[in-house]
Write a structure and sequence with these properties.
With 792 residues, the protein is α+β, with helices and mostly antiparallel strands. It is built from 25 helices and 20 strands. Strands 1, 2, 3, 7, 8, 9 and 10 form a seven-stranded mixed beta sheet that branches. It starts with a strand and ends in a 10-residue tail after the last helix.
Length: 792
């Protein structure tokens, strides 16, 4: 077994391309070996700014001889078929083998030297390499057939053991020579084999292992900061990028003018990171220090003093630009800046950014005025679109609080809070037209918060402007300040509804407007803050802003029809879209999607929904839950087979009568059936009525021939009389654990019913009675969840 070394040396490879290039090199090399039936014991890849290398260990010296067999026509086939097969294989008839009346071509292929396989593979790999960006160079570049590489290719090392693998591409021939560090050892280095490649380059100030260079930078930067009494602001991405820019990394600490600290710290950090690839540091109090750490590519004789000074001057120029942008932006109020949004198109189908701002401001005010957002409670009022839902025993909520970054008293509820929410929404996008955000788009929102605070806006308004984009992804902070929540929620709702209305929803593979992320943000805001509202009402109010702006009195009938169709589609698709996103969100914490489906069909309050799902998941995992689900499925299948329609339980809502079969059976065609479900007041006041079976003395003869029902039927009737109202009442009180406990009491009676009673009795009256009893059991279960959607 022999090791193989391949080095492809070029001018500087961009740092962002190096990791993928290593993966691509390993993949292409493995594929070329597989074509010849070869497999390496291990493949290791390296990348530096000037070279891409691969070491394949334990390759055999030659491929194995193989015998390839190709099936041909039958020996009795027409001569034309045989002639075609002979042309395909290049054999003569006497070279074919006859097996059971079928011709076979057997071709013995001798083994090949692995070096010959590699010599063919190297040019193929280079030509097929998928660089994100590549170039041609030299005189040959006038032809589109010339070699393309990320930067001009300068050398190839190809050693199988200590033997050269001869190959050439675009005038570059393979050899055993490379070069060391550009300054420390610019001369030629001769590599003996894969075994000495890494160490010979190290001796010439080139660390080829990218993981080692990253470790040197990470540890060196931290030690430099600690030596100066500072704390490094760690940045893994910056470590990787600096490792891709250097072959002999040396972290160095420098200082910049402390006067620049008047600029917001995020601006300083972003300027240092993006423009110069520098790390920044904090002092013992956690504040940004006037220090930076750069990564040199040379071990300087003066310990890097000149390098640090040069980098300080460049950083000072960058920070001067940043300070200019900041001071210039402060001279114009956000209110004036916001007027420029009228000239920026949000989307060609949805108007300008100013149009969106107006919609979001009105929606944010409405969310406060409707009581969806309340300070210090973490949830809205029961009247806030929630259908009067009681607030007893809500799931744990994160109380809304005043932003810790803001100063002054927290905002008040009512009109004051509504005014603040609208004000924040109208200024939230104003920083998009500032010089600073134009230079650093990553700072949008953040700079608006700084400008608002500096211009005397209410602290809650400044905090809302700063954080209204949050949460922007998994693990991001979820705002809790009521003004911020109102603006963030309104902004995301408007974006989702607007693009659905414009006919631009996400597809299976594309989501160009990040609507899935926005929906997850809405769900995080709602569930983490315990906001109580019914989603159709909020979607409808969000839709109002769009229809007001987009519906013109002079619209033609055809345009109006299309407009109305778009409105209807929003109400049909957006709730489903939120349901799908909720499943994705909750899957991360182990919630089953079928349980969400079971509750989602009857629940549009996300906080209530998740509380119900949590209780349901705990219940179905118990023996009572498992057996009740099995009994429900059996009852449901019988009813479906008999054509009995599904409907809401008569124990909830408007006092409906007994469930009617789709075919009309059971509507009085059997004597005495109507006596089964007379109205029965549940209390002396008659405030709540339900349709329920009366006691056995009021019922027709039992299927067994005696008076009243069979014992199993009577037991199920009595259990339903207690469990169904109890479950419905518990759901109304949002005590979902109690609702599950009420359902659990049905398990035994349902099991006993199926064990001792024949539902499809030959007597139509008995069969109808039993089907009605099963329908009651099914509907009692539906008061809690649609068990038909639960797997199992």
């Amino acid at each position: 077994m022999t090791d193989f070394l391949l080095e492809l040396r070029s001018e500087e490879i961009p740092a962002r391309m190096q990791d993928k290039a290593r993966d691509d090199l390993a993949r292409l090399f493995t594929a070329e070996l597989a074509k010849a039936g070869l497999t390496a014991g291990e493949i290791v890849t390296y990348a530096t700014p000037r070279r891409l290398a691969l070491i394949a260990r334990d390759l055999p010296d030659a491929t194995q001889a193989v015998s390839e067999e190709t099936k041909g026509p039958r020996t009795s086939a027409p001569p034309q078929a045989l002639d075609g097969f002979l042309r395909k294989t290049g054999l003569t008839q006497d070279q074919l083998v006859d097996r059971d009346g079928i011709w076979y071509a057997v071709i013995d292929k001798p083994g090949r030297a692995t070096a010959d396989v590699l010599a063919e593979a190297i040019p193929a790999i280079i030509r097929a390499f998928p660089w994100p960006k590549s170039m041609r160079w030299g005189d040959a570049s006038i032809s589109t057939e010339s070699l393309r590489w990320v930067r001009p290719l300068q050398g190839i090392i190809a050693l199988f053991g200590d033997q050269l693998v001869p190959c050439a591409i675009a005038g570059v021939e393979s050899g055993a020579a490379t070069v060391g560090h550009r300054f420390h050892h610019p001369g030629i280095i001769t590599i003996g084999s894969a075994a000495d490649y890494v160490e010979k380059l190290r001796a010439c100030h080139v660390i080829v292992d990218q993981a080692e260079r990253r470790a040197i930078i990470a540890i060196g930067a931290k030690m430099a900061a600690n030596k100066a009494g500072l704390v490094l602001v760690e940045d893994e991405g910056l470590v990787t990028e600096n490792a891709g820019l250097t072959e002999w990394p040396v972290p160095l600490l420098g200082r910049f003018d402390a006067a620049f600290l008047d600029v917001p710290p995020e601006v300083i950090q972003l300027t240092a990171r993006v423009n110069q690839k520098y790390f920044v540091c904090r002092d013992a109090d956690g504040k940004l220090a006037n220090a930076f750490i750069c990564t040199a590519n040379i071990a300087a004789s003066d310990d890097g003093a000149m390098i640090v000074e040069g980098n300080r001057k460049v950083l000072a120029a960058r920070l001067s630009d940043a300070r200019f942008f900041y001071e210039t932006d402060l001279k114009v109020t956000l209110e004036e800046q916001a007027k420029k949004l009228e000239k920026i198109v949000f989307h060609e189908k949805l108007g300008t950014v100013a149009d969106k701002v107006d919609r979001v401001a009105k929606l944010a005010r409405w969310l406060v005025e409707e009581g969806v957002i309340l300070p210090g409670t973490g949830r809205g009022t029961s009247e806030a679109g929630g259908g009067g839902l009681p607030q007893a025993t809500p799931p744990a909520a994160i109380p809304l609080h005043h932003s810790p970054a803001a100063s002054g008293p927290p905002p008040l509820a009512g009109e004051d809070l509504a005014d603040l929410a609208e004000r924040a929404a109208r200024l939230a996008k104003a920083d998009l037209v500032t010089g600073m955000v134009g230079e650093f788009p990553e700072l949008q929102g953040l700079m608006g918060g700084y400008y608002a605070a500096a211009q005397g806006e209410h602290p809650a308004v400044a905090a809302a402007i700063r954080d209204h984009y949050k949460p922007v992804g998994q693990g991001d902070d979820v705002p809790a300040d009521p003004v911020t929540v109102a603006v963030s929620l309104a902004d995301k709702l408007d974006t989702i509804v607007a693009f659905f209305f414009a006919g631009l929803p996400p597809t299976g593979s594309k989501d160009p407007f990040a609507l899935r992320r926005a929906a997850l943000g809405v769900l995080d805001l709602v569930t983490r803050n315990g906001l109580r509202f019914r989603s159709p009402k909020v979607i409808g109010r969000t839709m109002d802003g769009l229809t007001y702006q987009k519906c013109s009195p002079g619209m033609s009938e055809a345009d109006l029809d299309r407009f109305n169709a778009g409105v209807r589609k929003v109400f049909d698709t957006v709730p489903e879209f939120f349901g799908d996103r909720l499943k994705v969100q909750q899957r991360e914490v182990g919630v089953r999607h079928d349980l969400i489906d079971a509750v989602l069909a009857d629940e549009d309050d996300f906080v209530r929904l998740l509380a119900r799902v949590k209780a349901l998941q705990a219940f179905v995992g118990t023996p009572d839950g498992t057996n009740l689900l099995a009994g429900y499925k059996r009852a449901s299948n019988i009813l479906k087979k008999e054509g009995w329609t599904d409907s809401p339980s008569p124990l909830v809502g408007e006092g409906r009568g007994p469930l009617a079969p789709a075919s009309g059976k059971g509507e009085g065609d059997a004597a005495g059936v109507s006596n089964l479900t007379p109205p029965h007041p549940s209390d002396a006041s008659g405030a709540h009525e339900s349709n329920t079976f009366m006691g056995p003395s009021r019922l027709p003869p039992s299927p067994t021939g005696g008076e009243g029902f069979a014992p199993a039927e009577t037991a199920l009737i009595e259990a339903l009389d207690v469990a169904a109202p109890a479950a419905a009442d518990a759901v109304a009180r949002e005590d979902f654990a109690a609702a599950m406990a009420a359902l659990a009491s049905l398990r035994g009676p349902i099991d006993a019913f199926f064990e001792s009673v024949i539902v499809n009795d030959p007597d139509p009256a008995k069969r109808t009675v039993r089907l009605q009893l099963l329908a009651r059991a099914r509907d009692a279960v539906h008061t809690v969840a649609d068990f038909s959607r639960i797997d199992g």
